[in-house]
Amino acid sequence: MENTAKITVKASGTYDILLAKGGLQHIGQAAAERFKPCKIAILSDDKVFTLYGKTVMDSLQKAGFTTVSHVIENGEQSKTLDNVTEFINTMVGAQVTRTDMVLALGGGVVGDMAGFASAIYLRGIPYIQVPTTLLAAVDSSVGGKTAVDISAGKNLVGAFHQPSMVYLDTDTLSTLDPDVMRDGFAEVIKYGIILDRNLADTVARPGTFDLEQVIARCISIKRDVVEQDEFDKGLRGLLNFGHTFGHAIEKLSSFTISHGSAVARGMVIAAKVAAAYGYTNYTNAIAKVLESYGFDLSCPYSASDMYNVILSDKKRSGADITLVLPESIGKCVLQKMPAMQVLELMKKVRL
Ligand SMILES: NC(=O)c1ccc[n+]([C@@H]2O[C@H](COP(=O)([O-])OP(=O)(O)OC[C@H]3O[C@@H](n4cnc5c(N)ncnc54)[C@H](O)[C@@H]3O)[C@@H](O)[C@H]2O)c1
After folding, report:
1. Model pTM above 0.85
2. Residue of the nearest CA to atom 3 in ligand 1?
């Protein structure tokens, strides 16, 4: 296939991320070059499957694979253990074996669920990620974090399970709702601020850059981080920039504020907290970029309410909280501090 760029990830499994603009109908060929003919169990959501399900199934079948599909209702509320069980029942019914594969066709919800189902079905079978949102393209489809939500919290049940291939056709992003696309840009901007000044400068001017190249850069950054810290013991924590505060906002809003919008607000709060802690103040610079994408950066919650949610966050260890703070644009650091200090800093700044 011409015009396909490849980024290889060397983690506990080695796999290719293929950037095949306009190439969704060639996914079967890419799979056949890497895997023996087998059964592929596709998990998708109703919106995405209607748009792209047939193209993917036709291509896989033409390349010698058999397919079975399982479609869930779109949205975060579907990322449940019950839905994973139902998908697994579909696989049992279709006699999917350990030499077969799962394929996630959709955004982060489908990707996380399919990844988790493939991590636990028959104690683990391989899976392919076909991300169709910007967030899934630059973030959730790479790195092998899989999970579902339970009533106690988001992503509390999951596994590390690397995909065997990621196949991205960026043309699929053209059908995204503008709000969903914007959510993805929160993660793109995040990569620039944490690790890449050039990327931060590039995306500071919406509409002036090549999206393919920006996506490839984000994936490369995530690849580098995952290769160094696959199991999230240190460096990978940098990818949580804006997420500690963002998750609290998401939860306090009962998930009516979307993930991307909450992370955008969280990045600005992190910048304010960093300044209150003694770092140079980058709040205005970060807020300006986010506002140019149309993000609402207001925080409707008090420091105390946010703090209580942060305390129950799974990423807290002991009495300390590790925050990701911008030291400069393009360089963030992990700063561990007593939980009470986080509350004091939050109270000091105007959220
Ligand atoms: N595993 C990880 O490392 C990781 C990282 C970040 C986020 N996540 C998870 O990702 C999830 C969010 O992912 P998301 O933002 O992609 O949400 P999503 O999967 O819910 O997709 C958002 C919406 O876009 C629709 N959609 C998807 N692709 C489309 C397309 N091409 N055209 C039209 N509509 C399309 C979906 O049907 C859905 O309604 C969360 O559950 C989050 O926890 C995981």
Report:
1. yes
2. 140
